[in-house]
Each structure stands twice: as C-alpha cells, then as structure tokens.
Amino acid sequence: MTMNLEQLRGFLEVARVGHFTRAAESLHLTQPSLSRQIATLEHDLGSELFHRARGHITLTAAGETLLPLARRMLADAETVRREMAELAGLQRGRVRLGATPTLCVSIVADAVSAFHAAHPGIELHLTERGSRGLIDELSSGALDLALVITSDAHPATAPSLTRSRLLTEELVVVGGGDAPFGGRTSVTLKDLAGMPQIVFPSSYDLRGTLDEAFRAAGLMPKVVLEGAEMDAVLRFVELGMGVALVPAMVLGDRPGLRSVRLTEPRLSRTISLARRQDVQPTRAAAAMHRMILRTADALAAGDRGLGGLVSRAG
After folding, report:
1. Can you give the residue ranges of the HTH lysR-type domain (predicted)?
2. Span 96-100, mean pLDDT?
3. Are 146 and 137 in contact (CB under 8 A)?
4. What confidence tens digit (pLDDT) does each residue in 241-268 have?
C-alpha cells in the first residue's frame, strides 16, 4: 500500500465539501488530478470511500472509518514537520492553543501576553470554543494544548488525552453597583433566582452549571436576557439590566461592577490543561505549557486580588 499525505489531504477536502470540483479548486488541483488521487487511494485500500451521486458526494462506511484516521495522520505529520523545522532553525515555532470563552479573558490573556513577551518569534493561534469542542479538536490533532472546564460529572477528556487540574475558581454574582444586593456580601441560590438575570448561551459550560443548580433546587430563574457573550453580559450588568453569575477571574478592573459570593450552594469550576498523550509536544508547545502553569500559580497566590476565590486544584 502506497498511501501518501497528498491523497489524504484530497480525501479530507472532498469529504469536507462533498464535491470533487470544489475540492480540487480549494487544493489548487485540476479535477481529473484529484479524481486520480482518490481512485488510487481507493485501489490501494481495496474499498470505495465515496458514494458518487451526480452533484453530491457522501462517504461510504469505509470512508467514515478513514476520516478520523486521516485527520490524525495529517496532524501527526504536521507535528513532525514543525518539530524538524524548529530543530533545523527554519522557524521559531507555533503554538495552537484552545480555551473556553470565559478563560480567554482571564488566565489565557495573562499567559499568552507573557508568553509573547518572552518568545516574540513564536506564532500563536487561539481557538475559542466550549470544552467538548476543544477536546474533539485536541483529539484530532488540530490543537497542541487546550484549557477546559472539568468536573467529576463532566471530565471533558478522551482516551488519547491527558489533563492536569490547574485551578478551582469560585463563581460569583455580579451586579451594577450596590443596588441589586441591598448591602449584602453574599446571596443564596434562592435569592439569585428572584433577581433579573443576564445569562450566557446554552453552549457555555458555565450556563450548564447554573441550570443544573436551579433544577436541583427546584427553582425557576428570572431571565431578562439570554445568549450574550462574556463582554456583553458584563456590559448589560453595568447598565443595570440585571445580575449575572460569572467566574471570579473575569471581572478585572471594572469599577461599575460589584460582586458578591453565592452561598447555599457555593458553586465553583475546575480549570484543566489538556494535551495529547500519544504525541511528544514541540518545544514551543512545552514552553507555553510551562507559562500557563506559572500563570496559574500567580493567580492562585492572589496576585490579582482574587484571594479566596481562586486556588490551585489538587
């Protein structure tokens, strides 16, 4: 069998767009050349990979089986290419980091800015997505590292991955000044249910945590706006539309906001760093890994005024 990377790239692109001509254009090939690549691949594998209907191409069972393997093989080849280029001094490296949206405005911003200051020649790529989507991308080889939200109920991992628990972060209720809280320094979940709330999209891990807490307590929240992203949520809160449950680290320097602790129950989340355990990280990715660990240590030590709200996870 003489399967090669060009054949796999052609196979993946046809599978992605469902059309030989469009796939050939995307790959800067002629359509007959791409068709020959796929035909040779099918001959070498002894199986048809596509159902060829006029104007529409779909994967056969053999094609469905090959799809994740082809993605992994190309990702591994790219890792080898980048590592060899680093060793040869052809480039200074690249890091593909994934993180959930709420982490991108806290630990990721701190770690990436410090990393860039220390290693300005390393190319950085950041993917924002929910934890489940990041785990899928990490498993397929599209990411080097991912910062995800994990719990005992939702471990957010896969057999090919290893994860390290970094931080435990308390979730706090934030409002526009003192008015929503009436001088209180904490509120209960029942109190929160009666307040007008700005809530995140259902795809947010944080939203799932809050929804589960309300269901378990038999409470119905009073939602006034749903679906906003983090920056918009905080701005709506500043404008007095309602309160929101947010991770402690995202508040930063926002004098128009006041946060109080949530009690009965107290809610928190665990931030973990995940990577593939079957692939040796590049030197650039290993350097980013170390920077993230140092940033987590600084946050847990209270360097940003978060004492008691953020701690190192065991």
Report:
1. 3-60
2. 95
3. yes
4. 999 999 988 877 778 889 999 988 899 8
What is the per-residue pLDDT across 121-180, written as a single tens digit (0 to 9) for each? 888 999 998 888 999 999 988 999 999 987 644 555 667 788 899 999 999 999 997 778
Which residue is associated with the tokens 């924002």? 128
Residue 107 burial by Cβ neighbours in a 10 Å radius (0-12, 13-18, 19+): buried
Q: Does residue 212 sit in helix, strand or coil? A: helix
pTM: 0.67
| Cis amide leading into 265 (omega within 30) | yes
Under a CB-based contact definition with an 8 Å cutoff, are residues 234 and 164 in contact? no
Is there a contact between 219 and 190 (Cβ–Cβ < 8 Å)? yes
| One-letter amino acid of 250 | V
- Judge residue 110's burial from the number of C-beta atoms within 10 Å of its C-beta, 0-12 exposed, 13-18 middle, 19 or more buried: buried
- Classify each residue of 50-61 as buried b or exposed e, where b means 16 or more C-beta atoms within 10 Å of its C-beta: beeeeeebebee
> Is 62:47 a contact under the CB 8 Å cutoff?
yes
